[in-house]
Amino acid sequence: MKRALLLTGKPGTGKTALIKEALARTKVKGGGFYTEEIRTGGVRQGFRIVTIDGQEAMLAHVSISSPYQVSKYRVDTDSLNRVGVSALRRALKESDLIVIDEIGKMELLLPRFREAVTQAITSGKKVLGTIMLNPHPFADEIKRHPEVETLLVTRDNRTEVMRKVLDWLT
Hints:
This protein is of the alpha/beta class. Helix content is 36%, strand content 32%. The protein has helices at residues 15-26, 77-94, 111-121, 137-144, 158-169, and strands at residues 4-8, 30-40, 43-51, 56-61, 69-70, 73-75, 97-103, 126-131, 148-152. The chain has a nine-stranded mixed beta sheet with strand order 5-6-4-3-2-7-8-1-9, sandwiched between helices. A hairpin with a 4-residue loop joins strand 3 and strand 4. The longest helix has 18 residues, at 77-94.
């Protein structure tokens, strides 16, 4: 069985929710982070990083100042490094499962993040995460890694993917 299981799919198919639910259902102790939308009045304004141990930081927002931009969002690479990359480095040392949600355009702007992802994939530990669906040189390289299995998540196959994730975790 491959050591890294990465979920991919279109936005809104429930990849992050699936990971959070799988972790809650198995009680596996992991480290790393996931991302959450920041919404105001039902409109997505940005994204935050939430570590498995409860730290939070803004990843991107429409109203922050940053030289880095993906779509309409400005990306806070300092927060990504301080909270996200630090959580991955802690997980590499302390956890049997490394959670990386997500390996996407915003996160891949930061070389330290790419280094931490590579270290996690080659660490020999289990990695559960999400990865962008669209082509990207680094993401495509990760998807082709011999230790990585990717599962496409759709609204129609969520139950089947959850079963596979739970089987893989136990």
